[in-house]
Amino acid sequence: MFRGQFVSVTRIAFVIVTVVFVVLAGRELSASIRTASISIVAERIERGETVADEVVTKYAVRSVDVVDGHYCRSDIVAAGVTLVLAQLDRQNVNVNYDAWAVAASSAREYLRYALSCMPTNSNFWLRLAAVQSTIAEEPVAIAGMMKRSVVLAPHDQVMILTRFYFWNDFTDATLAAAKSALDSDLTTMLKLGDRCRVNATIKEISPQLRPIFDQTWTSVGEAATARFRQRCSE
Q1: In degrees, to the nearest 5, what angle opens at C-alpha 215 toward C-alphas 152 and 163?
Q2: pLDDT (average), residues 113-130
Q3: Band of pLDDT at residue 230, cut at 50, 70 and 90
Q4: Is 19's pLDDT higher than 60?
Q5: I need a surface site. Which of 29, 143, 184, 201 has the fewest CB within 10 A?
Q6: How far apart are the first and last CA of the chain?
Q7: 8 Cα distance to chain centroid
Q8: Which among 161, 153, 170 has a CA at the least distance from the CA of 209?
Q9: Rounded to two decimals, what is the model's pTM?
Q10: Where are the alpha helices (DSSP H) in 47-168?
């Protein structure tokens, strides 16, 4: 009798687990189908293919489906990030301010959603800081985002060199507010970075970043910086 009851309970548990897996698989399939076009266009942009402005606009708007559907799958969320940032990059604040403002606001809100799904994504924190800096200069808030990006990827060369591009564009106030993170990035870049890639990155340094960069260059020492005087092949 007890054995029969045990078998019944086991069967019930098996059925429940099976149903759960089927439901989850169905949701994943539904998510893939609903966001397939977003992913396809995002992949084309990431590969450097030419994508018409109207196509980017159409699918950037559709990225709201990711938020409304509460999809937090990394590939789906990342595709949406690519689209909303591409849409913002194609706006000219001096030509059509309203369109730029809508794109900037949408990118900021989407990135906040992306970070709610993946709070340890260094690149998303960097992108949010960059978008926020274009909307309004809020040194403390932007510095906090940049610090988070550095903490999450302190030795990733691709991220460090990407962050340098944005450090180079921030104001004195933001650079001062994020000094510890900036110093970390510059020191790591000069001590451990690939000589040729770093040389290409630091060809142009903004006036506001120059004194900080020069101070770091001096502080890391001749033994670390001498290699940057060697020529790199074209």
Answers
A1: 30
A2: 97
A3: confident
A4: no
A5: 29
A6: 81
A7: 50
A8: 170
A9: 0.83
A10: 53-62, 64-68, 74-89, 97-117, 122-135, 139-152, 157-167
